[in-house]
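Reopening: structure tokens for the nicotinamide-adenine-dinucleotide complex, inputs below.
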Amino acid sequence: MKRYYLPTKIYFGSGIFKYLADILGQRRKKIYLIIDSYFSKAELPEKVKHFFPKAKIEVFDRVTPNPTLLQVEKLRRKIKDFETELIIAIGGGSTLDMGKSTSILSGHSGKLMSFLTKKRKLNKKGIPFVAIPTTAGTGSEVTPWATIWKDKTKYSLSSPLMFPYAALCDPELTLTMPSYLTACTGMDALCQAIEAYWSIHSTLLSDIHAEKAIPLIINNLKKTVKNPQDLFYREQMMTASLEAGRAFSQTATTAVHAVSYPITSYFNIPHGHACALILPSFLKYNYNVSDKNCNDKRGTKFIRQKIKKIIKLLGCNNIDDASTKIKSLMSVIRLETSLSKAGVNDIEIIVEQGFNPDRVVNNPRLLTKNNLRDLLKEIY
Ligand SMILES: NC(=O)c1ccc[n+]([C@@H]2O[C@H](COP(=O)([O-])OP(=O)(O)OC[C@H]3O[C@@H](n4cnc5c(N)ncnc54)[C@H](O)[C@@H]3O)[C@@H](O)[C@H]2O)c1
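Re-run output (same inputs, fresh job):
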């Protein structure tokens, strides 16, 4: 039996950021605010200090894309030393993951690496953590894991204890996203929804969220990139991102995400773009699942039906049209669709590094290194 577990309190609405103190209350007197330099320049710390006049607020404003083990270790120490009562992270997935990791680690001693390699188990709740996304999105505000990098390798800190205490989703915070970031993060959400839907861990309940997210992204991402100041489209995309997050919070992602990580770490391609580059090929690859290579106990016919449903949710009638539609969407939102043109110059590194067992085994069709090499050559 599979359970649905998502304990995060979710607040959603345009303009709700200004009610942050009403939502959280004034009880906590020591707050750690985690942001990056973009939001520091936008005077966000001043705003948050204004919301909590009686609290001491310490600010960490040096999050960089794709947080590293060293950065998490350093911040964890500062958060402990400050005797923090509440952590608030405002930003994209990198900032939220910094908040989530340091929150859970604050309740544990010992080296971070021992938790990343699963030698030690996370078994205590951390400092309450509030996630406020400014991209739409990674869905990190409703997932129980955080991505941490060391020497170009991606690790996951993961535990049901890591769900944020609260997620505050205000689409107004995404209005400032430049078009490339809007495109990348929107495609990340599309990959997550599709991967949750075809995952071997999908359930009827996770499907409901993915079924909501996919058409929302297909119908609104192009318009959002073209009309960045239109709050209606930003709202649709933030809803889609949240729905995709809720879906994959129950299933985890699959081979598309696994293979995307070396594309990001070795070739510096942002996370959402790295995932999008390989999505159309994996859609076809998984559609062609057979009894010999089906990874899902529910069988080949079941997976075929799921992918036929994805094709419909994408607004298409057959697999070729669906794959072409994703590539056309990428072109319109100005995301490169070929690996070499996006800056990848070595497929072998991706083949060697893209086999994160946690993710690849979730894929509905078995994936071998030779299969992956062939897929990557097609989109090179
Ligand atoms: N934990 C999870 O469930 C999960 C899921 C997916 C991705 N991730 C992780 O999230 C990270 C990617 O996050 P991301 O794509 O949101 O980008 P990001 O957090 O890495 O931010 C990229 C850039 O966007 C800028 N930015 C963010 N919001 C902005 C806004 N509203 N206006 C202007 N600029 C803004 C930031 O300042 C930064 O320079 C990766 O490390 C990925 O592994 C985590």
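Strands lie at 9-12, 30-36, 56-63, 86-91, 129-133, 145-150, 153-158, 166-169. The pocket of nicotinamide-adenine-dinucleotide is lined by residues 36, 38, 65-66, 91-95, 97, 134-135, 138-140, 143, 145-147, 173-174, 176-177, 181, 184-185, 188, 271-272 (CB under 6 Å). Marking as resolved unless the reporter disagrees.
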